[in-house]
Design a protein that fits this description.
The chain is mostly helical and 53 residues long. Helix content is 42%, strand content 8%. The chain has a two-stranded antiparallel ribbon. Strand 1 and strand 2 form a beta hairpin. The termini are far apart.
Length: 53
């Protein structure tokens, strides 16, 4: 096994581990962490549709 192949396999394993852990913890880089805790209401108006960015 060459050094380049070992580095590539390590990189691919880290990408796969990151994807698996993100799906396990339901984390997304595109989510909105500042959702209101008022049950879907924002400023007194009902929010329709998804609340993610």
């Amino acid at each position: 096994m060459t050094v380049r192949l070992a580095i590539f396999l390590f990189w691919a394993t880290m990408i796969l581990a990151g994807a698996i852990s993100a799906s396990y913890y339901a984390w997304s880089p595109y989510s909105d962490e500042e959702r209101s805790a008022s049950g879907g209401r924002s400023g007194g108006a009902f929010v329709r549709g998804p609340t993610h960015k």
